[in-house]
Amino acid sequence: MAPLTRWSRSRSTRRVKHLKRSPAGHGRGSATSSGGRGAWSAGPAGEGVAGATVRACPSPPPSAVSPPPPTQPARPAQVATASVATARRAAVDFRAVVIDPSCIFCKIIAGEVGSSRIHEDDRTIAFMDISPASLGHALVVPKSHATDLHSIDADDLAAVVATAQRVAGLAVERLGADGINLLNSAGADAWQTVFHFHMHVIPRYADSPERDSLTLPWQPAPGDPERIARTAATLRGEQEPPA
């Protein structure tokens, strides 16, 4: 009987297996290996496929195997960005925050006294004034205690102004305010009553006294030009204070 031929592919190599049938065989023989990857033969004649010989394809040389792609190192821009973000978080997390246990605003910040909060971030908190001059009157305070304008840290002051701007925008957008007053009092003679720096955000409403009871605390009138000029020179350090 003519040998049967089986075609198969493994990658780019074509293997041919020649199988011979035993004239008296039926069923299958048990395969036995000889030589690992070399030739192997089926079971003895009369038990199935007899005398069959198969030659395996040799393994490709090590040099023909493609090495795995190298690990791509992080780009310098990515490393720099991550380092900057880490440094910023560290600066926020570990900066000193001053607390005055007798200060009502420090207690509000700590959650020991209730408040109606509007906004909070790493440096500031904004909440509603409990004695409002108008609808939406809010206070913005730094989380780190500072008595007044003269003692607040410059970065905290900048953060308070930024938050005040945000709250003012909310009053215009969501309450329909027609204008905004930002007010800070530094010292008892300037009407400061809580000695933790704070900025008032006071929404203003045109022709709406039920929502806005605030009035201008002085009557604008022309001043003495010479005295104004002498005062400016004093502030520049050029002459003594005017009488």
Overview in brief:
The protein has about 240 residues and is an alpha+beta fold.
Helix content: 10-25%
Oligomeric category: single chain
In DSSP terms, counting alpha (H) and pi (I) runs of 4 or more, how many helices? 4
In whole angstroms, the N-to-C terminal distance is 133 Å
- What are the segments in which pLDDT stays under 50 over at least 5 consecutive residues? 1-54, 89-93
Question: What's the CATH C level of the domain at 104-212?
Answer: Alpha Beta
Question: Which class of secondary structure composition applies to the elements?
Answer: alpha+beta
Strand content: 15-25%
Order of helices and strands: EEEEHHEEEHEEH
For this structure, the CATH topology of the domain at 104-212 is HIT family, subunit A
* General form: extended
Number of strands: 9
Within CATH, the superfamily of the domain at 104-212 carries the name: HIT-like
Care to describe what's here?
With 243 residues, the chain is α+β, with helices and mostly antiparallel strands. Among the domains are: 55 residues, no CATH class; 109 residues, HIT family, subunit A (2-Layer Sandwich), CATH 3.30.428.10. Helix content is 24%, strand content 18%. Strands 5-6-7-9-8 form a five-stranded antiparallel beta sheet, covered by helices on one side. The chain has a two-stranded antiparallel sheet with strand order 1-2. A two-stranded antiparallel sheet has the order 3-4. The chain is extended, with a radius of gyration of 44 Å.
